[in-house]
Amino acid sequence: MSTATTHEEATENHEVEHHGLSDKQYIVIALILAALTAIEVSTYYVDFGPFFMPTLLILMVIKFVTVVSYFMHLKFDNKIFSYLFYAGLLLAIAVYCGFLATFKFFLKQG
Amino acid sequence: MAESAIAHDHGVSHGAHASSTGLSNNKMGMWMFLGSECLLFGGLISTYMLYRGRVSSGPQPNNIFDIPFTSVSSFILLMSSLTMVLAVSSAQRKDDRNINLWLTITALLGATFVGGQVYEFTAFYREGLGFTTSLFGSSFYALTGFHGVHVSVGIIMLIALVGMNRNNRIPGDKAEVVELIGLYWHFVDIIWIIIFTLVYLIPS
Prior knowledge:
- The structure holds 2 protein chains of 2 kinds.
- Chain A is mainly α.
- Chain A is built from 5 helices and no strands.
- In chain A, α2 (23-45) packs antiparallel against α3.
- Chain A starts with a helix and ends with a helix.
- The N and C termini of chain B lie far apart (59 Å).
- The radius of gyration of chain B is 20 Å and the shape is elongated.
- Chain B is mainly alpha-helical.
- Chain B has a single domain (26-201), classed as Four Helix Bundle (Hemerythrin (Met), subunit A) (Up-down Bundle).
- Classes of the chains: A mainly alpha, B mainly alpha.
- At the A-B interface, α1, α2, α3 and α4 of A face α2, α4 and α7 of B.
């Protein structure tokens, strides 16, 4: 019994290690992403008041990080891949926030 | 032996060329490419943010966007990420039949998204928003058009992959090739997540 169980567990662990997640878990994540998208779209119909902008931005970041971490396997892969991608992303954010600040974009929004 | 095991755990697939880091060169190259793509789309998104209020003639963004329609398009693209990751999962299990199935569904969902974008562009043009109508129009078409081209390139890669897989002509490690195209596909999805929020949902 223990040998069979150990073998099954080992196979399962190997699968999870190799794939990142199981197919069922990917489907659950997709459903969560769909629910988050539904909340985003609801801001078009429902007045969120002062929470409108923060809600949308937070949901956007959560969806972005979820896809990158789980669907793109960055959470389970070597950290070097994360450094390569997030370095490009952070550089882009820094450069273009500077660019927008030069044109007083953030002052206009305030 | 131990080195080989470590390399396997940290991103080197079977048959892939390992770099001095012990990682797959192909995968490293893809992640570097995606990192550089952030700069491309960052430029387009920030230019749109700057110009979206600059409407000298033609329709305003808030009057022209069809949020329910774009929401459905966004949902379709999001679900294509699920089918893509299921294709990658099938490739890692060496399940050839399901690889082709999921890749084909992903390509069809992508084609539906691009079709929706073509419809949207046509509708906007008929309502008076051309590429040179206003700074808003130019920056909007440049941003969403570049994204649409990326999705179209992804669809071509998916169709080519299905054809190559049917003829057993995928070079090297099949699972890695599917994963690399999957990374590109997910990237166009995450870019759309940003575009959908910043361009469509947040009013100018």
